[in-house]
Amino acid sequence: MQLSIVEIAKPADANVIVGQSHFIKTVEDVYEALVQAVPGIKFGLAFCEASGPCLIRHTGTEPALEQSAVEAAAAIGAGHVFVVILGNAFPVNVLNQIKSVTEVCTVFCATANPLRVVVVEEGDGRGVVGVIDGSSPKGVEGASDQAERHAMLRRFGYKK
Q1: What separation in angstroms does the CA of 116 have from each of 4, 86, 87, 102?
Q2: 8: helix, coil or strand?
Q3: Which of 39, 108, 120, 155 has the fewest Cβ atoms within 10 angstroms?
Q4: What's the rounded Cα separation, in Å, for the pair 138 and 72?
Q5: 58-111 pLDDT tens trace
Q6: Strand runs (DSSP E) across 10-113, as ranges?
Q7: Are 111 and 84 contacting, i.e. CB atoms less than 8 angstroms apart?
C-alpha cells in the first residue's frame, strides 16, 4: 500500500467539487443536475470509470473547465471518483442537487481553496483517503471579522 498527495490544478477563479459515485450513469445525471440548478452554468465534469475499459468519462458546458476536470480526475486516478470544476457558480448553488443524484455516494469536498487529495494505491486500484482543503486556522474570529463575514454574505446575495 502506498499513500500519495495529489495537488488539484484548477483555474484561479474556479471552484472544485470532488466526490465518489458508483455507476457510469453519473456523468449524465450530474450534468443534468448542474444545468437544472443554475441556468447558464459553466462547468466541466469528469468521472473515473472503475471497471470495463476504465476510461475517464467527461462532459461539460465549457471546454477549458472540462479539460481541467479531466486532468484532475486523471491525477487522482481512483475508481468511481468524479470531479466538477465550476466556473460561474459556487458549490452552495449545486451541492444539494449533486448529493441528490442517486449514484452519488459521497462528496469529499467543495472548495475554491488550494486542494490536495490524499490517495492510497494498492495493487491495481486507487482510492481517496481524504482531502486537504486550504490552510489551517490562524486564529479565532473577532468582532470585526464577524462583521466582515456578515457583510460578505450580503455582498454575495446569500443574506439580506
Answers
A1: 10, 17, 19, 27
A2: strand
A3: 39
A4: 28
A5: 999 999 999 999 999 999 999 999 999 999 999 999 999 999 999 999 999 999
A6: 15-21, 43-48, 56-60, 81-86, 104-111
A7: no
